[in-house]
Amino acid sequence: MSETIRRRRYRYDRIVIEAARILNPQFNDAVIFVTGAQIELLRNVTEYLRRRETYSVEYHMGYYLTPTALDHDALMAIVSDLEETLMGNPNTIWGYKATRMLWPDHTKSGAGDYTLSGTLCPAGEIWRMDAMYAWNNDTACSKIELVAEYAGFGEFLLAEKDNPGVGEYVRWEGSVTLEEDGRLRAKFYGCQDGDKLEYMARGNTMEVPE
């Protein structure tokens, strides 16, 4: 592409971006949150980013030079990637909405085993749970297990303890993420009739952006 074809005159109403700042950016990648109105603005602005005269590689008296064909192709690839990002939401940004506390309980009817299930995580939310404790208030179980249940995938063991004492906590601390229809469960083995079984779990809730 000849230099004559690449020449553009300066205009007072035109923003010109140095091509090198896009092809060799000085900033690291960043995660940002924008509103719906801001997305609308950015989508429309990308039309100007597709114009050759938006970019310069050299400044001269009365005119500037736009990028070569090769550099222009590279710039258009970057703009296309930006447009695709603005049209969708490829990454979900973690965000805090509220504290999530679970404290289910059950009084056992008859001797035997029992699974105490917590509330299901609803659609539109994600729970990040970081601690769970379970105990039998009345007798010593033969075993207590703490599990996370994932919809469509089954259970994942978090912690277990054989022969915990009366009222003794079986503890788990870490990080587990639950999505729609996921939940935490405590499994009590060898319970007696009338045992009061409980578990407590804490974490936080994130609202999934649409």
Number of helices: 4
Biggest β-sheet: count, sense, barrel? 5 strands, antiparallel
- Report the count of strand segments: 14
Beta percentage is: 35-45%
Low-confidence stretches: none
Indicate the CATH architecture of the largest domain: Sandwich
Shape: rod-shaped
Report the order of strands and helices: HEEHHEEEHEEEEEEEEE
User: Could you report the average pLDDT, rounded to the nearest whole number?
Assistant: 92
Terminus-to-terminus distance: 45 Å
The CATH topology label of the largest domain is Jelly Rolls
CATH class of the largest domain: Mainly Beta
Number of domains: 2
Binned, the helix content reads 10-25%
The radius of gyration computed from the alpha-carbon positions, rounded to a whole number of angstroms, is 29 Å
Structural class: alpha+beta
Task: Explain this structure.
The chain has two domains: 3-87, no CATH class; 98-207, Sandwich (Jelly Rolls). The strands form four sheets. Strands 6, 7, 9, 12 and 14 form a five-stranded antiparallel beta sheet that branches. The protein has four helices and 14 strands. Helix 3 (36-49) packs antiparallel against helix 4 (69-87). The two termini are 45 Å apart. With 210 residues, it is α+β, with helices and mostly antiparallel strands. The model has no long low-confidence stretch (mean pLDDT 92). It has helices at 3-6, 19-23, 36-49, 69-87; strands at 7-9, 17-18, 55-56, 58-60, 63-65, 98-102, 105-107, 112-117, 125-136, 143-150, 154-162, 170-178, 183-191, 196-207. A hairpin with a 2-residue loop joins strand 4 (58-60) and strand 5 (63-65). Helix content is 20%, strand content 41%.
